[in-house]
Amino acid sequence: MCFAMKKERQHIQSLMRALDILEAVRDSSEPMRSTDIAAVAGLGMATAHNIIRTLFARKYLAQDKHNRYLLGVECMQLQTGALNCFSRVRDAVGPVVRKLAEETNDTTFFGCEANMSLVCLSLCQGGGNLVVRPEQHWLKLLHCTGAGKVILAEKGIDWFAELAELNPPEKIAANTITTVGEMRAEIEKIKRNGYALCMGECSEDVSALGIPVYDKHGEFVGALAQSIPSLFIEAGRIDINERVKILRTYAEQISDQL
Hints:
By secondary structure, this protein is an alpha+beta fold.
């Protein structure tokens, strides 16, 4: 109890408020007026205005022609900097992800774990349309995606239990697994099969298939995954075992470069 209280005192209130403002703008579907930002962040107008003005001056916020706020160029630079540590892996997986999407006509994804979150390093839509700078919608979806499940299997059930305690998994669809007990059985199945299959866990009509990728030294790097219409699997149009073989062939191409 004392440690928790001591840790809480270390928080800098003004910084916490600035982060609340940035997160409010980030989570909005459209640019925001300062009054709306203050309301969402739970701040008084004068306090919010001072922080917003500072963030704008430092280019962490920008304005549109109606003087509404959106994230600024410095926020984009932060994302770029955060992903730079994965640049070697990203360069290796990009061409492979695109080629796999072209061959199968299914959206292909390469993800890895950072700070207990699922980070997308490369995303290519079915047919080979590369998404150059994907928005990181998957950060909290380790528990219900093909790539995320592969990562959880590598990390182990104790790691997932810690993650679930810090950030309880969201029940996104009827099939979404959220409990430690269910995930323990799922991890055992993934290790047994060598791949993860999520049937309608992140979206009702979409399933995901993921396999682990290792470097030349056998170290786990991340997961190669694809999104597939559930109907195609249920109707037998896509054979999972055959698709796993294809993914493993491409995973080997990535491993050869790392």
